[in-house]
């Protein structure tokens, strides 16, 4: 992906993902955009928090990163990309639930089975 599109994703789209996820979670979860640094270090949205509550589902505190497929990001800049992205934002509550089950993450207790989790190669399908 070229630098201009990567920068546009970092500044135009990723902050909206952060905003949507933040609206779904409590303020004790920190969410940040880690900017694109080249082919081996794509844009990441990272969620992290200390574990909460007495019943902790997993051994490690929340430290989850999301990355998207370069081709999927490129598609956001073509016809219909904005509408597709809006549908994706609307689907994020369901996607967060699915990622929890697939990756041994427990958002209510802010815990996970592994010390860090990467959910990568994501698409923008609703």
UniProtKB/TrEMBL annotation:
<dbReference type="InterPro" id="IPR040953">
    <property type="entry name" value="DUF5594"/>
</dbReference>
<dbReference type="Pfam" id="PF18057">
    <property type="entry name" value="DUF5594"/>
</dbReference>
<protein>
    <recommendedName>
        <fullName>DUF5594 domain-containing protein</fullName>
    </recommendedName>
</protein>
<feature type="domain" description="DUF5594">
    <location>
        <begin position="1"/>
        <end position="125"/>
    </location>
</feature>
